[in-house]
Fold this sequence. Notes:
Strand content: over 45%
Oligomer: single chain
Number of helices: 10
Largest sheet: 30 strands, mixed
Distance between the termini: 157 Å
Low-confidence stretches: 1-26, 134-138, 147-152, 358-365, 587-597
Shape: elongated
Structural class: alpha+beta
Helix content: 10-25%
Amino acid sequence: xxxxxxxxxxxxxCVVVVxxxxxxIIPAFVDVKQFKAPLEKYLSEVSGRxxxxxxxxxxxxxxxxxxxxxxxxxxxxxxxxxxxxxxxKSFEVRIRLMPLLSxxxxxxxxxxxxxxxxxxxxxxGRVSWDFGSSGPDAKPxxxxxxxxxxxxxxxxxxxxxxxxxxxxxxxxxxxxxxTGSRHEVSGLNIxxxxxxxxxxxxxxISALVDQKPVSAEGRFGPVGANLGQGTLPLELKVSAFNQMxxxxxxxxxxxxxxxxxxVSLDVAxxxxxxxxxxxxxxxxxxxxxxxxxxxxxxxxxxxxxxxVALTGAVLSLDDSKLSFAATAAEFSKPxxxxxLNLDHIDIDRYLPPKAPAAAGRPADAKPxxxxxxxxxxPLRTLVxxxxxxxxxxxxxxxxxxxxxxxxxxxxxxLSLDPFVMNLYQGTAxxxxxxxxxxxxxxxDLQLTVANLQINPLLKDLAxxxxxxxxxxxxxxxxxxxxxxxxxxxxxxxxxxxxxxxGAIVGVDLAGMVRDVKSGLRGEVPSxxxxxxxxxxxxxxxxxxxxxxHTAEAAMKSPLLRLAAAGNADLVKETLDFRVxxxxxxxxxxxxxxxxxxxxxxxxxxxxTFASPGFRPDVENLxxxxxxxxxxxxxxxxxxxxxxxxxxxxGILPRKQ
Length: 656
C-alpha cells in the first residue's frame, strides 16, 4: 500500500512539474503575434474604425497568467481631420489561474499607460464618440433580457483581490471645430488600492484641466458578494484649481438596479471670482466689484431616478446667508417644491454697473430698444410651490424688510399670492398673477399700501424729492409684455392714493395764488426751497394704455383748498394738469368740509417728469370772469365797469 501511495505521489508531482513546465515553455514557443492580425481585423469590423496594435505583444502563464501589448490605436470615422480617436501606449494585466477554479479572482496588476482620447465635434455637428452607426453592417443592439421580478445581479465569484489597478498619465482632448474651442484634461492618473469585496477600496484621482490642477481622494465599499445590492458607503474629497474644496460623505444603495444616493455635501468657502480667474474666465461686471467673492454650501442630498431632495441646506454668499430645503421631481416638467429663508441681501451689488449718461444727448431722448422674443415654453410646464422669507432686502436702492412670498406655478400661470412686506415705516401687501400661456406674459397686480413714508422711498428709488407724507393706497393694475417700454404702453387699471400730513416740495401753491403779480411774471421766490404743506391729498386715478388720469384729485391745507385734474403720460413722461386752488381764512385742514369762496389763480402743471413746470392760468380765469361780466344783465345789476373793477380787485393784490 505504501508503495502505491509513493508512486501515486510521484505521479502527482510529475504532473504538476509538467504543467508548470508547460506554462513556462508554451509562451516561449507560441507565436502570439500570429493572432494579432485576425484580432485587429475583427475589432475593426465590430467598431467600423481602423484598429491596430504594436508588435510588442507578450503572453505569460506562470505563476501569473498575463498579457501585455503596446501602441493600441483606434481610428476615427471618415470625415474627421483627426485620424485617431484613442491611443494607448501600453496595457498590462496579470492574474493567477489556480484560484479561478474556486471562483477567486486574484489580480497582480492591471495597468493602462498613457491613454489619449480625442473627442472632436465637426462643423457639421458630427461627433467622434458616436459609435451608434459604425460599420456598414451595423445592427441595432438586441434588447436586454428582462430579469425576473425581484432578481438581483450578483458576481459569479467568491472573492476579489487586486494588487494595483491604475491608469497613468492619461489625457482627453475636447475639440469643437464649430466654435474653435479646445480644452484638455492632461496628466490624468487614477489609482485604486486594496481592491477587494470585503473591505473599502481606496481611490485617488489627479489631473490638469487646461493646465489647472484637480484632484480627488476617498474610498468606497465594501461592495460585498452581491454587487449592486445593499448599501455602498462613500467618502470623497475633491480639490479644484487650488481654489475650491468639497467633501461628500454618505452612501449609494442598489447601485445597479435602482440606485439611490444619500450624501452630505460640504463646499468650503471659496471665491467664485478667483476660481473663474484661475481657469481663464471672468464674471460679468457688477456694481460692487467685491461682490461674489465668498461662497460656501452645506446640504444633505437624497436622489434617485425620480426625484432629488435637499434638506438642511445653508448657502453663504458674501455677507448673506440662505437656509433652504427643496425637492425636484418629474424632471421633464419639472415639479419643484422649496422653502427659502434669507437673512438679508443687497441685490444692487450684483446688478451690472449703471452706465453714465451719454454726453450731449437730449434730456427727453430715449435709449434704443430692441425687439426680443423670450421662450416661455419651460414656464408653461413648470409646477412650482414654494415660500420665500427675506429679513432685509435692498433692490434698486429701495429698502424692504420682513418680505414674505408664496410662489406657485402650474399650466403657465405663475402667482405671488400673497406677498407681504414692511417698507419705509409702512406695509405693502397684495398678490400678482403672471400668465405666460401666450407669446407675451400678461400680468395682473393688486396692491394695498398703509402708512408708507413716500419721500424717502422716492429719494431711494428715483432720486426725487417732490412729495412728502404718509401714504395709503389701493391699486389694481394689468399689463402685457416683459419689456419696460411695452409694459408702459399696455398699463391699465385704477386705484386711489391718499397722502396724510405731507407736502408738495418744489412749489408754493399758496404763495403763488396769493402773489398774482410774481405768478404772472413767472418769478421764483428766493430763500428756502418752496413747498406746499397739506393735511390731506387724495388722488383717485385710472390708467389706460400708459396714461395716468385723475379727474377729482383734492388737497386740503390750512390756508388752501385745491382740486386737480389732468394726465401724466408714462410712455412720453409728460405732465398735463390743471390745479384750481381756493384761499381760505381758516387754519383748519383735514376734516374741514366747508366750501370756501376765496379767489385763487388756477395753476397749470406741464413739462416732463424730470423737469416739471408750474405757471398761473390767468388766461382761463379771465375768460371765465369775462363771461360772467358780459353775460345777460338782470334789472338793477351793477354796471359793467363796476363788475370789471370787482374782478380785477379779486385777481390783483391790494395796495398796502
